[in-house]
Structure formats: structure tokens, C-alpha cells
Amino acid sequence: MSLRKKVGQLMMIGFEGVKIDSDTEAFLRDCHIGGVILFARNVESLDQIRRLTTKIRCIAKEPMLIAADQEGGVVVRFLEATVFPGNMALGAIGDPKTAESVGSAIGEELSYLGINLNLAPVLDINNNPQNPGIGVRSFSDQPELVAKLGRAFIEGHQRWAWACAKHFPGKGDITLDSHLELPCVAHDKERLFKTELVPFKEAIKAKVGAVMTAHVTFPAIDPTVGLPATLSEPILTDLLKEELGFRGVVITDDLEMGAITKHFGIGEAAVRAVLAGADLILVCHTKEAQKEAYEALLGACESGRIPEKRLEDALSRIARLKESPKAYPYVKWQENYQLALDTSLRAITILKNNDLPLLKNLHQAIVFFPQIAGLVQVEDILNSETLGPYLCELGIDCTQELYPLKPEGSKIQELVDKAKDKNVIIFCSYNAHLTPEQVNLAKALASLNKPFIVVALRNPYDYNVLPEATSFLCTYSYRPLSLKALAAVLTARAEALGTTPVKVEV
Q1: Would you list the DSSP string of 17-78?
Q2: Which CATH number fits domain 21-322: 3.20.20.300, 3.30.200.20, 3.40.1620.10, 3.30.230.10?
């Protein structure tokens, strides 16, 4: 294998559009790029994705790692596949067998699409309610529960396609978004081993195929000021590979995120990541950044800055991942749909109930539903379904109003006026605990002194800032099946059995 080909194997890239353009095709072929990551921008249909992954392999003429972020819940790339409600919903159920079944179903469908690496599950422990980027992507704020459910998900998923535990060594306790800034987890090493590292140790025992790095500093492990885990040899090599014994592929989070680009050049970051112990460099978006990373890696290998031993170790790890192809199964679409609906239903949690069930002909209700938007860059696919139609299908006299995520004074008054002649107000919140404008709207609606049902579509911490709610439910997801399940619970067609897996003031 030539040095140029070896260097290309160290990279995973993204591209624009639903077809491979000529420049990307040439880059994949001529530089022997080792992997491709797919986003919503690459998706037209499931059949198109199967053709696209086949095309990618034909261009490469060798085994390829083809990846996607199909976590479930707020982070999915393929809406036409089965969309599960996400990790915190599994945490609310608390059952490893369900997590294993969900992991298996997602892996089965990805394998069918030609995708052999899922950048999931998130194993960060959401022990900071102010975390802007994790929240419902985490199973829980309890290390043991995250570890137990994460391992079960991985074991189910890897029947069909590789899983990737992220974001090592854990970025649950941060208040900055690493897509934009460089956060810090300042806990001592004893705390990290008792908390943040617990799920990753369990994932390693489960032989997870890959681990993704965090663009976060951990001064207790590496005191180098401003050096994120992605570029830290004490974290990636000394801790992850040697102390914890990880034998799989270490993949960086996207090097085009602000935590890297604001402090390091892409090329230098790529080189330093490999030197630190990363095996696969992820550059998701621009061709310029991808080519800069490739040329920097090539130059570092030619000059000896990246030692041959480090290069060969990375290549052997990547090759092992490629040497284990999974079967392209017959997908049990209907069974998977039913599993997703059942999971969505079992996750729904009631924290307060003074107003349910809603009954036909007795409740003239108004639903306030947020104009859903991705809150961090990793969320790039959204659905347009809302709660109101599901309630109408079940015979509830219901109208619906969409509200902006940050409603201002005049808009708030307009919405309040529309609720004055209704009997019941249903307010669907969307991280209101991080959005004062939503809280202002909710309090204005509550001042009408009507039954005021709040549903947290995302983080359950909204409970803490909306004590005016006369009833409060959590779905942990705004996806269609979660809304369908919610309507069933609100109208007593089904029972809510979930238990919130993070601490709220109950």
C-alpha cells in the first residue's frame, strides 16, 4: 500500500447532495479515502441511499466505512427508516432488553441501507441540566443506567453494523456547545472514573467497534491549557487505549466544529489528533478542509512527524473494522414500527396529573406547539407533524397554534387571546428551561386560570421552570410516534409508565 493510500485510509469525509459529484469521486478514488459519512443532505429516499452506498463502494473498489448518526430522537438522518424516540426515552423505560431490541432494529435497517458504522450511542451522562447539546441524547444522569442501557444497545446493534460510543471521555457536564466553543470538564480523575468513564468502560467490555472523541478539555487528565481530548495523547492513548484497553477505532468528532477551528487549523488538528491516538479523522463538510487535512497528514507521514508505528497501528484498527462485514438483512419494517411505537408509549412520563384524561365532547382544547428547530448543528433533519391532528383523530375538540421558540411580547399576547375561550390549554415546551421567552409565554397562558397541561417534548427539566402546570408530561421526543403515543395517553387510550431518568424537582 502506497503512503498516499495509507494516509487516505485515515480519513472519513462528508459531501453535499444526493449524488457523488465529480470532485468528491476523484478525491475518494485518487486519495483512497477510508470512509464516508452521510447526512440528511444526502438523502432523497431509502432506495436512493442503497444506490448511493453501492456507488461509493464501486468508486473505492475496496471495503469502505460508511457511517451516519442514526441515534434516534432528535438526531436521525433517515426519516423514512424507523425513527425511535431516542436515548432518554429508553432511559425512562429503564429496560436493557428494550435498549438491545432498539439497537438491533436500528443496526438492521442501517445494514440494509449499506451503512456499516452508526455514530451512536451517546454515552455522555447528562448530569448538567444546562448542557446545550446533549440533553435527551443521553440515557440518564445516572452512570450505571447509562452504562447498562448503552451496553445493551451496542450488543443489539452490532449484530448488524458497528456502533460508536461517544463522546469520550464524556461531555455531559458542560454548558458550552462544542460545535461553537471549546468547553471544559474540570472534575478530578477520581470523579471521572466514578462517573463519566463508567459507560465507556462497559462499552469496551461489549467490544464496541469505535469510540468518538470529545472536543472538550479535561485538565485532570491532560493539564495542557486549551487542548481538547481529540488532540490529547494522555486521553486517547494513555487512558483509552492503554489503561482502558480499547482495541477498536478511535474516531474524532468533526474537525470543522468551532471547538477546533477557533483554536487550531484543520490540517494541524488532523495531525495532532493522529499523534494523540485518533485512528480516523472526521471532516464532514467542506472540500477545502478535507484536502487541507489530507495534505497535512501526508506531509506529517512523509517527514516522520507521524511515526510509521502510529500510522500502522491506526491502519490495522481500521482494517479490522472493515474485515467484519455484516449481512444485509431482510428488514422487519412492520415489527420495527411497532417496536418504535411501543417504545415511544412506554417512555411517556407523567410528573403531575390533575386534568387527565381528555374526554370527547367535554373538552374544548387548544394546543400550543413549538416551531421545531434544531438546537445544535448535529440536528439536521426535522419533521413537521404536530400534536393537534392526533388529538382530533381521537375525537377531541381541538385547535392548534404554532409558536416561535422565542416568542416576544406582542406575539405572546396574540397567543393568549386565542386561548381565552377554550376550556383546556395544552402547552408543548421545547427546552423552556433554557429559553426564558417560552417560560414567559407559558406563564401568561397559565394566568388564564384554566386547566394547563404542559408536555416537555425535549428535556424534562422544563418541569422546574413551569410550576404553574396543573398537569405535566414528558415525551423526550417530538417525533411522530411520540406524538401519537402522547395523544393516546392524554385520552386514556394508553397508560403512561415511564419514569424520568434525570433528576427534576418532583
Answers
A1: SSS--HHHHHHHHHTT--EEEE-GGG-S-HHHHHHHHHHHHHHHTS--EEEE---BTTB-S-
A2: 3.20.20.300
Phi, psi of 198 (to 5 degrees): -55, -50
Check 69, 124, 222, 253 and give the catalytic one. 253
Summarize pLDDT for 322-380 with one digit per residue, the tens: 987 566 678 999 999 999 999 999 999 999 999 999 988 788 999 999 999 888 888 87
Q: What kind of fold does domain 341-490 have according to CATH?
A: Rossmann fold (3.40.50)
| pLDDT for 261 | 87
Rounded-to-integer distance, Cα 424 and Cα 234, Å: 57
C-alpha cell at 155: 450488543
User: What is the layout of strands, in order, in the sheet containing 65-68?
Assistant: 249-251, 210-213, 162-168, 117-118, 65-68, 35-38, 11-13, 281-283
**Which of 399, 435, 381, 418 lies closest to 80, judged by CA?**
381
* Residue tagged active-site, from 95, 179, 263, 380: 179
End-to-end, the C-alpha distance of the chain in Å comes to 61
Q: 349-352 and 471-474: which strand pairing?
A: antiparallel
- Measured distance CA(300)–CA(315) in Å, rounded: 16
Nearest to 382 by CA among 256, 460, 477, 454: 477
Verify whether residue 179 is a known catalytic residue: yes
Q: Delimit the domains of the chain by residue range.
A: 21-322, 341-490
Overall pTM surpassing 0.90 (yes/no)? yes
Q: CA 229 to CA 184: how far, in whole Å?
A: 10
pLDDT per residue as tens digits for the range 429-439: 999 999 999 99
Select from 404, 399, 475 the least CA-distant residue to 440. Answer: 404
By the 8 A CB rule, do 227 and 268 touch? no
Q: Comparing C-alpha atoms, which of 139, 204, 192, 114 is closest to residue 165?
A: 204
Written as nine digits, the cell of 465 is 421552570
